[in-house]
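Our preliminary data section would be incomplete without showing what the modeling component actually yields. Below, a chain of 255 amino acids is followed by its predicted structure, encoded as tokens that our downstream tools consume directly.
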Amino acid sequence: MERELLQALTRHLLPTSESLLYPYGPAQSDRQNPKDDDGASPEIPISMSFTFYGKDHHFLYVNNNGVVSFGVTVSQYTPDPFPLADGRPFVAPYWGDVSNILGGDVYYRESQDPGLLRRLTRDMNQYFPAIPFTATWAFVATWDRVAYYGSTSQKVNTFQAVLANDGQVTFIMLNYGMIQWTTGTASGGNATTGLGGKPAQAGFNSGDNKNFYNIPGSRTEAVLRIGQTSNVGVPGRWVFQVNDFKVTGVPTESS
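Predicted structure:
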């Protein structure tokens, strides 16, 4: 009880960028990944087929190291640039060496909550007015105040992936709250700063070695500022139509 109260108070004091994140956590009846280095959720069957780059998927995994993957878990902790040659299809809100053993939680849920779907519909219609879309299904995965492997600091990251579907069109939204580190020590990072080495990767990999997208700054020190960039004019938010490969919008950086 005291721990939940402390978490609630801590979230209330987080920067305003946290308000970009869709609701998550125990209050939303989210499931929670085990405290397991390089671990993942169990295989998650989803009630509505999700089309990702022209292929339909019926189950997925939420991986501790900042990845939602289709058909295969991703235990790799040092990110590679996209496209990958090994055929793994996944979305990477922040692929890096997360350690939820040292701090933080990884949450997820499938949802058809009317309030959530209305919010998704409103947001997608705002960002993509030329694409008819009314959300009927969603999946929300959130990495809440997670530490990095080998950390000797209090630095944490909070980020989120939201999958949305109306039966024909699918979107993935990436939301970024507090981002304080880029690299775990096993990837060459500094234990005290969480920087250096091979920084985190953000973007999409279709698995066909053809369709992919690297969010600008990926695998460089600039990924630390991903919460200030966007392709939809909202710093800290990236949104993509993913049933077919399309990258919409010009990356912008807040002043």
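The two ends are 40 Å apart (CA to CA). DSSP finds two helices and 15 strands in the chain. Preliminary results of this kind motivate Aim 1 of the renewal.
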